[in-house]
C-alpha cells in the first residue's frame, strides 16, 4: 500500500494537470470567438475560422476525455488514501485501547501483590484463556499476561517481514494452492522467539503486484479468520503480513511461480501435530478409531460448523485434509481459502464463473445440481449438515460412501447409503460397534432433500449427550 504523503503528492499532480488542460481549452475558445469577427466575404478568413472551430471541438473532446480520466484517477487515489487513513485510525485505536487495559490491569495486579512479576512463558495459543474475574489477584495477572500477548502480536502484525523468521521446513506443499512451512520467530521484540508457527504462504505470481492488490486477491484467507473470535475447533490465526517470497530466506520459495521474488501473503497460524487424514491413516492400519472418540470428533466438527454458521460463514472445502488434530486430540477446522460470508438466509447469487465449492466430494446434492444463470441462487443453509454427515463416515475410518461410484451423489435415496454401525480397521477383528444413536443422526444428516435434514444446532444437540 502506498504511504499517505505519496498519495497526496499524486492527487495534487493530477489536479494540476486538470487545471492546465482547462486553461488551454479557454485559450482556444477565445481564439475561436475572434475568428467570428473576420470578414465573411474573405475565403481565407472563413477557412481559418472553420479550422479553428474544428480544433476547438477536437480539443474540447480531448479535454473532456482527459477530465474524466483524471476525475476517475483522482477518485481512485482518494479512496485508497481514505482506506489508508481508516487503517491507521483502526490500528491506533486498537493499540491505545489495549495499552490502556494493559496498564490498568498491571497496576491492579501490582497493588494486590507487590513483586509478584510475570511469567515469560506464553499462554497456550488455542484455546484463548477464559475471562477471569478482576477481583482475583491471580485473575488480574492472567489478564495482564493475555493483554501483553495481544500487544506483542499486534506489533508483529504491522512490523514483521519474512526475514524475521527461521524456516524450519515444509509441512505441506499444495502447489499453486499454497505452501505451509514451520517457522520460528527470531527477531527481538516480536512475540515469543521459542514459538513455532504454521506459516501459510500464498503467492500471486506477479512480480509487480502491490501489497494492496495482493490483499484483495487473498482476502478470504485472512479476513474471515481475523474477524472471528477464538473457538477451540477453528484454526487460530495470530497475524498476517505481505512480503516478497525471497528464496535467499528459504529454498522452499524457489518453486514459487516464474518470478521467485513475488509479493506473497504470509499467514501465521497455530501449528498442530497432524491432519485428521494422517491420524486416521495410522488408526485404521491398527486397531481403528475408538467409538467414543469418533462421537467426540463428530461433536467437535459440528461445534465448529455451528460457530461458523452463527457468523454466516460457509467453509465450502470440508475434507479430512482440512481438519487438523490439536495437542489435546480435538478437531480443528482449517483452510478458509474457499470460505464465503453470506447473508442471513445463507444464499448467494449463482452466476456463470462462480465456484460452488472447492471439494465436490463433500458438496450436497442441491449444490451439485444447481445451474448458474440470472436470478439463480445457491442455498448453503443445509450444505454443512450434509458434509458433516459424510465426514462422520470418514471419521469412523470408512471411505466417503459417495466416492466409490456405486451411489449417485446427485440423485439417490438415503436407503442406498449403508448405515454407519461400526468403526473401520484394516484388521476386521478390531472393528467396533458405534452408538446406534450416532448412526440415526448421521442418516438424517445425509438426506438428499435439504428440508429433510436437521439443522446444525439440532445435530449438535442430539450428538452432545452421547459424546459425554
From TrEMBL:
Pfam family, one: Pkinase
Species annotation: Geodia barretti (Barrett's horny sponge)
InterPro entries in alphabetical order: Kinase-like_dom_sf, Prot_kinase_dom, Ser/Thr_kinase_AS
MF-aspect GO terms: ATP binding; protein kinase activity
Protein name in UniProt: Serine/threonine-protein kinase PINK1, mitochondrial
Keyword annotations from UniProtKB, A to Z: Kinase, Transferase
Domain Protein kinase: 166-467
Annotated Gene3D superfamilies: Phosphorylase Kinase, domain 1, Transferase(Phosphotransferase) domain 1
The keyword Kinase belongs to this UniProt entry's keyword annotation: yes
UniProt keyword Cell membrane, yes or no: no
SUPFAM superfamilies according to UniProt: Protein kinase-like (PK-like)
Biased composition (Basic and acidic residues): 1-17, 43-85
Region listing for Disordered, in residue ranges: 1-85, 108-127
Biased composition (Low complexity): 19-33
UniProt signal peptide: none
